[in-house]
Amino acid sequence: MPQMVWSTLPDGFHDYYNAQWYRFTGVPEGSTDGEGWSGMFHADDQPVAWEKWRHSLATGEPYEVEYRLRRHDGVYRWTLGRALPVYRDGRIVRWIGTCTDIHEAKQVAEQNEVLSRELSHRIKNIFAVIAGLVEMTIRSNPEHRPVLRGLVERVIALGRAHNFARPHSEMSQPELPNSQLYGLLVELLAPYQSDNGERVRVSADEIMLDDRGATPIALIIHELATNAAKYGALSVDSGQVTLDARTDGTQVTMVWTETGGPKITAEPPEQGFGSQLIALSGERQLAGTMTREWLREGLRVTITVPVRNLYRHHDSYLQAG
What we know:
Blueprint: E1 4-8, E2 14-17, H1 19-25, H2 46-59, E3 63-70, E4 76-88, E5 91-101, H3 103-140, H4 145-165, H5 181-189, E6 200-204, H6 211-230, E7 240-247, E8 251-259, H7 273-285, E9 289-295, E10 298-306, H8 314-320
Parallel strand pairs: 6-7
Antiparallel strand pairs: 1-2, 1-5, 3-4, 4-5, 7-8, 8-10, 9-10
Helix pairs in contact: 3-4, 4-5, 5-6, 6-7
C-alpha cells in the first residue's frame, strides 16, 4: 500500500512501522522506535506535531496533522499524519496511524491560494479606483459633496465585504469583528445603510463563526441585498430591511424582512441565478433550510442552519467555554 503505516502502545511508544515507512525514509529498521520518529520531521513542524500527539494520547481524540517528513534523499515532503485509537474493554490498547505523501497536492493548493489572493487584490483595486474617481468628481463638483461622499463610503464598504464573500483557505480567512455573526452582517449591509441608520436594521445574538460559515452567509446576504436594491425594499427611498439572527444553542435562525418597497402581487414565476445561489449556499453548504414568503408588503426569507456549521472549531470552542 502507498501509505506509511505505524503503530504505538497506549502511551505513544512507537513499536511498528511497515515497509513503506522504511522505503520512504531510508532509515535502518527499528531506528525510529520509541520517540525516534520525531527527528524525521522538519524542525519547524515538530512542536505542533508533538502538541497534537500529546493531546490525542491524553484525550483519545483522533490525531491529524500536516508536517514535512524527511525522505531518504534528504528532501522534506509534506505529509498528512493520522491515527486512531484501538479500544478493548473500554480502554485504549493501541494506536494505529498512517502517513500519506501530500506534497504535490499541497503545492497545488498553495499556488491556487496565491492566484486567489492576487485576483481578490485586483478586484479590491477596482473598488479603490471607483472610489478614487468619485473623489475626483467631488473635488470638481463640491456642491455634490454630501451625496457623493455617501457613495464613496458605500463603494469602500463593498470592497471590504468582498473579502468575506470570496473563497478562503486557512491562510487567507478574514478576522471577523469579535468573531461574531453580527459584525459580518453589519459589514455586508453597510453599503445599503442610510445616514440615519434606519434603512437597514440588524440585530443578532452572540453567535460565533469563522470563514466556514462566513463565506456562504456573505453570498446569501449579498444576493438578498442586491435583489432588494433592484426590485425590493431597497429600490425606493421609503423601503427598509430588518435582519434578525437568533440561536437556541443548536440552530441559528436568520429572518430577512423587507417593508416599504413595491407591493408584491404574486410570486415570481421562476428562480434566477441569485436565488439558486442562495439555495446552494444555505441548503447545501450550511446544511440548512430556507423559506421565502412573498408577502404583499415585502419579501420575508427565513434561513435556519446548525450552529456547528458556522464555526470550524465549534466543538473545541464549547469545551473551552
